[in-house]
Design brief:
single chain, mainly alpha, Growth Hormone, Chain: A, about 75% helix, globular, disordered N terminus
Length: about 425
Amino acid sequence: MAFATGSDAAVGQEAKGWEFAVASGILGWLLDAFDFFVMVFLFDALANHFHVPKASVVYTLTLTLAMRPLGALFFGALADRFGRKRPLVFCVLYFSLMTVLTGLSPNYTFFVICRALYGIGLGGYWGVGASYALESSPRRFRGLLSGMIQAGYPIGYLLASVAMQTLTPVFGWRSVFFVGAPVAGLIVVLTLVAPESRAWRQHRPASMEQISGALLQHKGIFLYLLLMMSMLLCLSHGAQDLYPDFLKSVSAIRTKTALGMNALYGIPILYNVGAIAGALFFGHLSQRTGRRSSAMLALAIALFSIPAWAFGASLAVLAAGSFMMQVGVQGAFGVIPAHLNELSPDAVRSLFPGLVYQLGVLLASPATVVEFILRDRFGYPWALTMFEAGAIVLMIVIFWFGPEARDRSFLRNTVT
């Protein structure tokens, strides 16, 4: 891999209007997250409406996640073969349509089909949006933009929480499936006025056979990155998915308030703020210190936060511990868009990182179940500690021995 030095102007990394490409990539991932996370607040409402057990509604989350690799494969291959813009527009319109149809579901069967089809769009957007944004932007901003892309996910979670508290009491549960449609329209406009990726124009594969050949040719780095993403997603799910349930088991905070609301809701909002801050800070830091070094520093912060995060006996300690845990976990995630794109082959820069990411989601999906089994045997604090500490140590080892291509130019004929 060639490494470029000098200014972006010297190598012609960015084209006029690159800001629109970046905005579309970030907003699309935020909207994707919003449309996914409204579901976690609606389990009871949907079960009552469709007259099915709550477990049947929860199952649709697994179904959505299981479809994500198909989306990464389909939309990623389209973006590498035909350009970033048209597949990106297609993807955002597709998953927004599936979201609106979810809100219009007349019965449970129709609802399940919509959530499965939505998962294809959910899985397709990240790889295309991240590659489009990072290929279009100046290299000096790549680390910060990497953090901004990844921060879109906890921001989407927060906005879903706000929508549940403001829209559903007035307009009902269906309204949260419609509110994102205007944002999808904005993303389409931003994408249409943005320039096509110059890096894609240079490295455009001539056929789908060449795309599949590039994947096979780079299977070694693909397997390494798949291991990295699987463990990192285990870490992320292990830190978030069961934590609200863990908080319910801490008697010392049941009657306390945080941020003006019940602590069971205030603490998750607080640690999502920490997640956003961590992604932005460590993404930006990685531009100076390197992707691996920044990620390992973030992971060290998460490791040292475990005692307060898992064993805190007061509201203040638990709030501080959970905040710093998410600063660390999502700080490590903040470098991922840049890190994956820089290590991806030029001809498959949408398909390669997107497929790695979404297959990692699939392989990490049992994480919550494993943590729950540990809880039954050792109790919540020790279950959280064992799972997260083990994942963090493994992640540090994986990053320590792994490759890096920080600040790599995505264009040919650069100054080296």
